[in-house]
Amino acid sequence: MSGPSGPRILAVETSCDETGVAVVVGGRRIEANQVATQVALHARTGGIVPEVAARQQLGWIVPTARAALDEAAIGWEDLDAVAVTYGPGLIGSLLVGVNVAKAVAEVRGLPLVGVNHIEGHIYANWLTDAAAGEPLPAEPPFPLLCLVVSGGHTQLVLMEDHGRYRLLGQTADDAAGEAFDKVGRLLGLPYPGGPAISAAAADATPATRFPRARTDGAYDFSFSGLKTAVLREVEAYRQRGEPIPVEPLAAAFEEAVVDALVTKTVAAAGDFGVAAVALGGGVAANRALRSELRDRLGGSGLPLLVPPPEWCTDNGAMIGAAAGFRLAAGDRAGPDLEAIPNLALPWLDR
Ligand code: KG4
Ligand code: ZN
C-alpha cells in the first residue's frame, strides 16, 4: 500500500527512441530511473526510422522494467499504480509501453494513469532524488511559465495550476530539437545534432549573425528559415572550395536558436507576471540555453527551474511525476486506453 509520502508508481515512457521505466513515489521522489537509448543505432541512419524504433522498444521494455525494479530494490507486489505515456509520439513505439502498462495494471489489480509526454517534460521540474526520509525541496510555484523544447515540440506554456495549461506560443514549422538535428546533419556532425552542435559550439566564435525569424504571434517561433540560412552558408563555402568552418557555424546557429527562445520566454515572463520560469524537453539540456536564460532573467529576480540534463531528455521519471498529480486528482485510465500519436495538452482558452 502507499506509504506516508504517496503512492509508488511504475512509470513507462516509450514515445520515441528511448525506453524509460522509473519508480517514483508521490510524484516527486525517484527510486529508480532506467533509460535504454537507441542513439547509437539511429546514428547509423542519421535519424530515427520509426519501425526500427518500435522493434527496439519491444526488445528493451521488459529488461528495462526489470532493471528499474532492481534499482529500487522492490518487487511487482510493492507497486501502487502504473503510469504510461499515451501520446504524443510514434505510434509503434507508444503501443509497446501502453500495452505493457495495461498488462501490469491488470495482472496486479493496480490503477492505471495515461500521461501526456509534454506534461511529463514539464513535471520533470517536480522531481527530486532525495532519499526516503529526507525533506523534499519546495514545489515549483504557480503561475509557472514553461518552455518545452524537444525534438518534436517547441511550446511556451503558462501553467496556472496542476493540469491547467494555456498555450502562449509554439513553433510554426520545425521544433527546436528538430532544427538542431537537421543542422547537425548539414554540418556533418553525428546524430543527434543537439549535443553534437552544443559540443562543437562550446569554444567557437560565431561565424556570422543569422537573421532572427519574424512570427505571427508574439510568443511563436520559427526555425526552418534559420536551417535554410545555414544550408546556404555551407553551400557558399563549398562553391568557393573552402573548408566549412563547422564549429563557428554551429556557434552561430546555436546563438540564433537560443536568442529566439530566450527573448520570447523573458517577454512572456514579464507580460504574464509569472512566479517562476521552468525549462523542459531534450533541448533544455543545452548549456547555452540554460545559462543565457539564467542571465537574461537575472534582473527580474524570477527563479529559473532547470532539471538536470538526464531528466530533460526522455525518461520514465518525468512520467511518474506527472502521474503523481493526475492520480491525486482522481485520474484513472481503463483497459481501453489508446495510444494517440498527435495528443495535445488539454488547453484552456486564451
Ligand atoms: O525530449 P527529447 O529527449 O525527445 C523528444 O521528445 O523529442 O528531445 C530530443 C531532442 C533531440 O532533437 C536532441 O538533438 C535534442 O533534444 N537535444 C539537445 C541537447 N540534448 C538533446 N539539443 C541541444 N542541446 C543539447 N545539449
Ligand atoms: Zn520528449
Overall description:
The strands form two sheets. Strands 3-2-1-4-5 form a five-stranded mixed β-sheet, sandwiched between helices. A five-stranded mixed β-sheet has the order 8-7-6-9-10, sandwiched between helices. 41% of the residues lie in helices and 18% in strands. The chain is globular, with a radius of gyration of 20 Å. The protein has helices at 39-45, 50-72, 91-108, 117-123, 176-186, 193-201, 224-239, 246-271, 287-297, 309-312, 316-328, and strands at 8-13, 18-25, 29-37, 81-87, 112-116, 144-149, 154-161, 164-170, 276-280, 304-305. The chain is an alpha/beta fold. Helix 5 (176-186) packs parallel to helix 7 and helix 8 packs parallel to helix 9. It is built from eleven helices and ten strands. Strand 7 (154-161) and strand 8 (164-170) form a beta hairpin. It has two domains: 8-139 and 311-328, Nucleotidyltransferase, domain 5 (2-Layer Sandwich), CATH 3.30.420.40; 144-302, 2-Layer Sandwich (Nucleotidyltransferase, domain 5), CATH 3.30.420. The protein binds 5'-O-[(R)-(carboxyoxy)(hydroxy)phosphoryl]adenosine and zinc ion. The site of 5'-O-[(R)-(carboxyoxy)(hydroxy)phosphoryl]adenosine has 19 residues, from helix 5 and helix 6.
